[in-house]
Amino acid sequence: MKQFSRRSALFSAAIIPAAAAAGHTQSAATDGALLALGRRFHSIAAQLDDHSLDTGWDTLCEFDRVLTEIVGMPATTIEGLCVKARVGCWTMLGDFESADESAAGAQMAFSIMRDLIRLRFPHLENPGAVKRLFEEIEESAKSQTAAPTGGATAARSAGGAQ
User: Fold this and answer.
1) What are the domain boundaries of the chain?
2) pLDDT tens-digit profile of 5-64?
3) Which has the closest alpha carbon to 24: 78, 83, 81?
4) For the whole model, what pTM was predicted?
5) DSSP secondary-structure letter at 148?
6) Do 118 and 125 meet the contact criterion of CB atoms below 8 Å apart?
7) In the chain, helix, strand, coil percent, each to 5?
8) To 10 degrees, the CA torsion angle through 114, 118, 120, 122?
9) Of 82, 73, 83, 81, nearest to 39 (Cα)?
10) How many angstroms separate the CA atoms of 12 and 67, rounded?
């Protein structure tokens, strides 16, 4: 039976991190395209979030293309996973509470996304955002329904005057 020497142990201790570093460099290069797509997504998302900007159809098509590519591209590093988590977070308005009623598989995916966001980008989380958005939409709809429209009122008045 062959015994391990101190020399072989030191060699193993030196070679394993070197091999891991080489693998990390390769993985980082693999995720380079994903990281670039993440930067592009962030840029377009910032445009969409800025309501003072006029967003054209071309921008929306580019947004859809970038989103589709990010979803289809495998992440091989934590940085690549963070790109996907940030995209998912943006699509949910940063509100992970709304994901609690999803199916088990989706809950796990949201859990992983939430954990990555909380670890790396905690400022992006926005609890209650989806609920607030729905409330704003409902309030807007109620105020539009309650406000009389000139055309309908004028038509009723003209019909009643005849």
Assistant:
1) 34-143
2) 444 444 444 444 444 444 444 445 678 999 999 999 999 988 888 888 888 888 889 998
3) 78
4) 0.55
5) P
6) yes
7) 80, 0, 20
8) 120
9) 83
10) 42
